[in-house]
């Protein structure tokens, strides 16, 4: 029996524990969803009762986790091929595809309904659209169809701060769109840096990542271009109501570091990258995680300072 057939048969039996169902929620991705949504909620100019705020963030987290479960359900076939995903609950045979689908759908409906009850219909509608966009538009359509999958699909990960803002204000504003844009523009260079040293996985699974369809040289150029476009957006946010001196200082430093990293990636040849096992690419990927965390932490600090009448322009 082939490995694929063995894994497929294993998914019919299942031997799942709590940790396996938790893994379906993609906790690392969920942590980013929770953090950026919380920043969006706290940065909004309208105060939210702590209990309502806690409930809202909880249901946003559940919705984000539900998206992850449905993503793993649909991508079970390629997860069995890619080395970095073979240990996930479905390809490892601990949870069946049907169980994952039911789990994800149940959590999706519960999250949207409960967020509507806890806050408002705008926030709930944004959460529902985010789940739909990630599962249907990105996972089912874009991911296996176009090398622009990350560019367009990145919108799914950019909605959480807008949802948090909507929980507080009941609507959408320029500030929430700016937070969305920051994540949206950050996503391509972040994932392409990863794809540079994970190319074989995507190629074997038939996923048309930019590194597979256009090669690493083109991917390096794209990383530099997107980082050049991202920097003025990120720094310019300092001069809006969610920015300020603290955010500006953080943004200038982080964007200088990210631009240098993108330039270092751009000027490297494949021979150089292979010789040091893609050390620079891995370093820039790690920096990209800190980059986003730093910007949203700065927005949060500016919001706290503004609450005390400090930190603004």
Helix count, DSSP H or I runs of 4 or more residues: 17
Radius of gyration equals 20 Å
Helix amount:
over 70%
Q: What do the pLDDT scores average to? A: 91
**Distance between the first and last residues' Cα:** 67 Å
Give the overall shape, derived from the CA principal axes.
Answer: flat
| Regions with little confidence, pLDDT below 50 for 5+ residues | 1-13
Please count the beta strands (DSSP E, at least 2 residues each).
0
Structural class: mainly alpha
Top keywords for this entry?
2 domains; 17 helices; Tetracycline Repressor, domain 2; transferase; disordered N terminus; UbiA_prenyltransferase; mainly alpha; single chain; 0% strand; 313 residues
Strand and helix layout:
Layout: H1 3-13, H2 18-24, H3 27-43, H4 50-74, H5 76-79, H6 97-118, H7 121-142, H8 149-153, H9 155-158, H10 160-169, H11 174-196, H12 199-205, H13 210-213, H14 215-236, H15 245-267, H16 270-275, H17 279-307
Helix pairs in contact: 3-4, 3-10, 3-17, 4-6, 4-7, 4-10, 6-7, 7-10, 10-11, 11-14, 11-17, 14-15, 15-17
